[in-house]
Amino acid sequence: MLTQEPAINFESAPSTPDSEGESILENTPEIPGENPPEAEFTSLFRRFLNWFKEWPNILALVLALVVLILHLVIITDVKSQILDEQHYVPEANALLKGEDLTDEKFNPEHPPLGKLLIAGGIGIFGDKALGWRIFPVLFGVASIILFYLICRKLTSRRWLPLIATFLFAFENMCFVMSSVAMLDVFSVTLMLASFLLYLNYKYLPAGIAVALSALVKLNGAFAGGIILLHWLLVRRKPKLDGVKFLFAAPAAFFGLMPLFDRLAMSKWLAPWDRIDFMLDTSETLTFASVDHPYEARPWDWIIYPDSMWFWYDPTYQSALNWTLWALIIPIMGYGVYRLMRHSSLGAFGVSWLAGAWLIWIPIVLATDRVMFNFYFYPAVGALCLLLAAGIHQILREASQLDDILLRRIVQGLIITFLLGHLAVFIILSPYCGWPEASY
């Protein structure tokens, strides 16, 4: 059974694993020795090979491969442009033709990186469904692997990361958002890359990854707030690390934006002018000025399990798995509980939810910016992480029960829940037909 931990400060806490195998205070990374480059390369190569000797790692790769196959089987089923593909695909084609993307007939409220990636797919595979969607699919599969690696950095428990990755891989909103040529999957995948780099104490590369996420969609900058919040809760020292990150993210953003704009628009543009223009354009898209059947405020995303239909045959709908949606409030509460128990995993999960979802509430109250339920997509990983931690804790508690029958009942209920999660994914996914709805 878990024992109540005394109230301690993260900064003064001893660096020992808690009951879930997490570091209460993260250890300082080892300082590289004076080994020659050949020896360091050999050591790195051995660690790489050893990684494949662990079954959870192999199974995580299998999950990513299964999702890749599921994507590729249906990638060309819809030959028309789905939802916002109607904006981004023409814009990507215009980019390839050298047209002026600052024209308001395109989508000037977003930075250029995501559009460049879609244009790259079209340039390689042609102006058709495969070309439009191949890079979103590849980024979506990469996000599964990155998410698994993030979970491994947050806990030493062997199977917890795999449970979290199973939940994330077979989450309908994640699958749908990585099935279509929209910008969100690029931003989220780069956000996850920034998390992994940060957790490995790579502050400068983490800042660059945050910048790249923001260069797809400006709200990708929220990843920086998530990292800073976790750093303040858990690490704090040395302060130079925080300074490195605070320098790297904006420096990379302002340094790379003119380069990407040059690639996309064939001309140099001042980044501050571009940001001002994007924000001004975004401010015109309010609940008062936009009449859309699927508009929803941030609290609606967690209160109502409504779907936002992208396409009807096959059924592309932005909706959380019901198994995940039904537990959102308990998951958030559990994350706060783990934070109060001085868990680094809990601190990261709560920081993630605060920076990817909670921040939208003051924004919408201040600006009335119109929003949709797929804006919750960047926060889905946090829910899967915390839910997996809760499931793992229940299984550990059950394993210590003297009553074998009760232990088997608990284990059976967990297995049933995970199978139910997979079943709901299939029901909501494009692989299961739904009655046509009217838009």
Tell me the layout of helices and strands.
Blueprint: H1 37-51, H2 55-74, H3 85-97, H4 113-125, H5 129-154, H6 160-169, H7 172-177, H8 184-199, H9 203-214, H10 222-235, H11 239-265, H12 271-283, H13 298-303, E1 308-311, E2 316-318, H14 322-325, H15 328-340, H16 344-358, H17 360-367, H18 380-399, H19 404-428
Antiparallel strand pairs: 1-2
Helix pairs in contact: 2-5, 2-6, 3-4, 4-5, 5-6, 5-8, 6-18, 8-9, 9-11, 10-16, 15-16, 15-18, 16-18, 18-19
Q: How much of the residues is beta strand, in percent? A: under 5%
Shape: globular
Through-space gap between termini: 52 Å
The radius of gyration is 22 Å
User: What is the strand tally?
Assistant: 2
Helical percent range? 55-70%
Biggest sheet statistics:
2 strands, antiparallel
Major sheet strand order: 1-2
Mean pLDDT across every amino acid position? 85
Order of helices and strands: HHHHHHHHHHHHHEEHHHHHH
Number of helices: 19
Q: Structural class given helices, strands, pairing? A: mainly alpha
Uncertain stretches? 1-19, 27-33
